[in-house]
Fold this sequence. Notes:
Structural class: alpha/beta
Largest sheet: 5 strands, mixed
Distance between the termini: 67 Å
CATH architecture of the largest domain: Roll
Radius of gyration: 22 Å
Number of domains: 3
Strand order of the largest sheet: 2-1-5-3-4
Shape: elongated
Mean pLDDT: 84
Number of strands: 12
Helix content: 10-25%
Order of helices and strands: EEHEEEEHEHEHEHEHHEEH
Amino acid sequence: MTVALFRFYEELNDFIAPSRRRCEFEFRCARAATVKNAIEAIGVPHTEVELIIANGESVGFSYRVREGDRISVYPVFESFDIQPLLRVRTQPLRVPRFIADAHLGGLARLLRMLGLDTLYDNGFADVEIRDRASAERRTILTRDRDLLKCRDVTHGCYVHALKPSEQLREVVERLQLAGQARPFTLCLHCNLPLLPIEKAQVLDRLPPSVAVSQNVFRHCSGCARVYWPGDHYRRMNELLNGLVPAVMAVDGMVPGVAPSPCGRGRG
């Protein structure tokens, strides 16, 4: 066996035993074990890690743990650019395209509301999530730690919060997504861009009150849903308040206009 000293920082402590949190501790691992194997044996999915320092040097996941090593493990850095130090993967974790697992449908909808490309289908099996994440360079969002420990998963985020609104805030803040947000530009149902459409083209599909009171519309070319400024726009804006700056001034949005779905679909 090989004995090394480990220390985990910030939110990575949520994954490990209370007695090991925010302090240096000894860990025994197999001879020639990689630091990735050791980190995951301790309980931390490798996708949550952005920087590993072994004896003062930045190392990658393939580094072999040696007797007496002092290893520090860090999550995504929110305030500092550590790109020159990165060794664990060729790209940083903060990739603004996502795929959410079956338990995060509410979060997926809210991310789409922010204009962040997010795939979701409650029928996705884990293997399909992993394959699509790899092929389409997406970050996996999940509450399943075992999914994030799979060898072929390179970008992932374990979501700690339970309520969708709290999950949204957690993901936006952890992955620094505010600058990538384009609120009210994607269909909440199928993730495709919303396009302007003339009122005359959708008039027969509108509720009478909307036909009288609204003049600006958008639609989704995939599911044919129609969107207009509705009462729930205020509630959406309240939810986004504090997450992204200047929601009303997003590129491509007419001030005061945001989507409200027409529940009649294709009519």
